[in-house]
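Lab notebook, bench 4. The sequencing result for the construct came back, and we need a structural model before the next group meeting so we can plan mutations. Quick request posted to the team channel:

Model the 3D structure of this chain.
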Amino acid sequence: MTPRSPLRWSRHPGVLCAAALVFAATACSSGEGDLAGEDAGSAEEASVSITPEDGAGEIRPNQPVTVTAENGTITDVTVEQTGGDGEALAMSGTLNKDETEWTSDWTLVPGADVTVTAVAENAAGEGTEVVSQFTTTPSTEGQRLEVKTDTAAYQMMTDGPVGVGMPIVVDFDMPVENKAQVEAAMEVRAEKPAEGAWNWFGEKQAVFRPAEYWEPNQKVTVDLHLAGVEASEGVFGIEDHSFELEIGRSQITDIDEDEHHMVVERDGETVKEFPVSLGMATTRAYTTTSGIHVTMGKFTNFRMSNDTMGVPKDSPEWYEEYVAHAVQISNSGEFLHTADWNYQLGEANTSHGCVNMSVGDAQWFYDNSIPGDPVIITGTDRELEVDNGFGYWQRPWDEWVAESATGEADDLGQAGTPGSPHMAEED
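Done. Here's the predicted structure in token form:
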């Protein structure tokens, strides 16, 4: 059963979301009911109507629930869902400025029995309560959109503190065509002021990032209101999903290819400086990428070899090394790692594209890194691609917003999202 929603303000200016208090249902009807009693006074009774109407069946789960009032204002709406193909978080809704129309913020669980209870009061404070009970269309086996929680990105986001550059990466098990509706169902809230937006990388992955790095030392809540969203024709989400990111301290690393030098700042103060060696740049593959990287996985006793780039073992260029400590910063084989064989740290760039460090320096960086720490590399002629690892900061913010399906930035200090997860009007 979906819990009753709390009273909250909508992010839309001048709009209040309906309270979800407990009222005993006195009627099961889409018509009118009276809570006032015989001494109602002379004020005209408020009337309430609910859509979908009482007794309706086979309602599409992405159809909005609406409540309208005449001769009064809406004071309470609750939506309860039982049974169905999945579960949902609390259902909230948005009132218009006059408090005469309420619309559900999110979609409904497929295959559920739904009870909507609404109350409106007239000018004398006399209440009218109406109840509508209906059922939603069930989802179809093999056409149910779900979030993948077994990915490396999901584990990085949820296993502990993350750095200020950590993106929110949501992977789906099926392609998403109706990206605007799915975006509008994914709510991100931060404890500290920020704005952000989603972008899509392929048909199954959505990525959210703020305009600037996250403010450190805060919680970011991600509520995926996916139950009932139509991701593609006939494909519906069946279950809501929620998780938190714990944003830790701010640690930002700057690496200058020309100077062979690396500086680590924590919360705005320089804490370490290291001599390094970057890619020798004799080929594109051996050129370190410039741009805003973000730390990903950490590994010990890690195998490094260019056979991952198709170089055969019998080639004179083939190499294989096992490094004590390695921190990944891209999907194209770039790491900051131990290189006890490199005697030109701080003097020349001689690596195959990684950032070489001494044994002690590499261990310090390994021990003091968490996923999501920005690593900014400058000076090479090869730019990091936006979809290489967590290279999402490579896309300028105005382009990032323009590339989102809703085309709007999201204020993370207020509940709700840009756009609507409900079915398009023409449907």
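Residues 1-40 have pLDDT under 50 and may be disordered.
Will bring this to the meeting.
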